[in-house]
């Protein structure tokens, strides 16, 4: 089986990175860069990952991508930044390097099936807008989700 780090090296070569650094389409189209430009820039992140994938696996910056895929869709070189960020996150998770905020979100998803805590107030709010209630995620669905994710990953998140 090919590791995340090996796949990463294949996706982000010196040649592709050279073209990447002269464009900027990813950064120009990134909603996270607009919101927190001092903390997040896809083009800079790609360069950092290329130079030091081990070091970047320990940085929270890696976990700020919003997964809108705008950078991947607009990249004229076909670099696929979103996939590179995912692979780097996988590499980080393999090493047990998941920052506090993503760890909390993952735990909430595993416990409730949602990224945010669910309460009756959510359904009341939805009712105010004429939307149907969503209710709680059935226990069977949560069990299936845990099987898909696997015990090994659940241990890493703890």
Overall description:
- The model has no long low-confidence stretch (mean pLDDT 87).
- It contains twelve helices and no strands.
- It has helices at residues 4-11, 14-20, 25-29, 31-35, 42-51, 53-56, 70-74, 81-94, 100-112, 120-128, 139-149, 151-157.
Task: List the main descriptive attributes of the protein structure presented here.
12 helices, 158 residues, 62% helix, 2 domains, mainly alpha
Give a short overview:
This protein has 158 residues and is mainly alpha-helical.
Query: What's the story with the biggest beta sheet?
Result: none
Number of helices: 12
The share of residues in helices is 55-70%
By CATH reckoning, the class of the largest domain would read Mainly Alpha
What's the arrangement of secondary structure elements?
Layout: H1 4-11, H2 14-20, H3 25-29, H4 31-35, H5 42-51, H6 53-56, H7 70-74, H8 81-94, H9 100-112, H10 120-128, H11 139-149, H12 151-157
Helix pairs in contact: 1-8, 5-8
